[in-house]
Amino acid sequence: MNAREVLFGSIAGLVASAVWAVASVLYSRVPVRAQAMATFKNVFATVLIGLVLFASRFHAQEPFFQATSRSWSFLGLSAVFGLAIGDVAFFRSLQLIGPRLGLTLTLLSPPLISLMGKVFLNETLAAETWMATGVTLIGLAIVMRERAGNKESDSTVEQSRLFWLGVGFALLNILCHCGGSILMKVGTEGLGTVEATFIRLFVASCVMLPVGLCTGQSTEIRNLARDRGEFLKLACAAFLGTFLGVWLMLTSFKYCPAGIAAIMTSTSPIFVIPIVWLACGERVSRTGIVGAAIAFGGVCWLLLPTA
Questions:
Q1: In this structure, are residues 207 and 90 in contact, taking their beta carbons and an 8 Å threshold?
Q2: What tens digit of pLDDT does each residue of 28-51 get?
Q3: Which residue has the higher pLDDT, 78 or 157?
Q4: What is the pLDDT of residue 146?
Q5: What 8-state DSSP symbol labels residue 85?
Q6: Which of 55, 223, 230, 261 is the right S-S partner for 256, CB 3.0 to 4.6 Å?
Q7: CB–CB of 55/305 below 8 Å?
Q8: What are the DSSP calls for 91-158, one per residue?
Q9: Are the C-beta atoms of 235 and 73 separated by less than 8 Å?
């Protein structure tokens, strides 16, 4: 891995975080179930990335698939955890606690990836790692206490219950994302990013589409399509967050060390703060900004030795 590849992967990770921030705000405002959104965006992005893969392979006169069975296995498992189970949990968390807090909680991903690397890859963790993890958790605790600026989040027991349910879904997404990232890193070895992205999206679509057809999710999407504005919102979110975002994330993990890729793809909370302020008119308190900054600083500290 040379310096130019690391720089390229780092930029890809930052752009992925930016488009995820925009997509998350759009997803949080689409009036359909989380499962229906996850199924639609996977199928939609699979078609788009499939066309890109077909065009590139046709132009180069190469076989459509070049992945080994090992790559299919690791990328397939990564898709089930990250793009199927994880994304459904993520979308539900966006609906319950909003995009700013939902994305801020994803800053837990890099510390957890480090811990999973210790368990599954026998990587050693320095004392600074544990200290940085503590700083990250302090920042997240501040943001969670602020509760994304919701003025009435504590007004009823039911609202409090929904808040913590949203936090639970966000944590489930983080666990799935971390496991999927490690599997994805192994699966992309010796494989182009376009084909690897297609495999992940294709497997996720094959898992979720039959369930969606059996549970009436297609009806929700058809009903939504009658409102062009709402459907366009969902399509734009799928294009940005899944087609571009997943492709860019995979590119970052392929060309960067896992630690650098993790930090670059975890910067969405920084991008989402000005977005919700400018586009949505959501008041961003100093407490929320300080908490996000502390959590982000903890993540940077955590991954500084690996950079």
A1: no
A2: 888 888 888 889 999 999 999 999
A3: 78
A4: 60
A5: I
A6: 261
A7: no
A8: HHHHHHHHHHHHHHHGGGHHHHHHHHHHHHH-----HHHHHHHHHHHHHHHHHHHHGGG-TTTTSSHH
A9: no
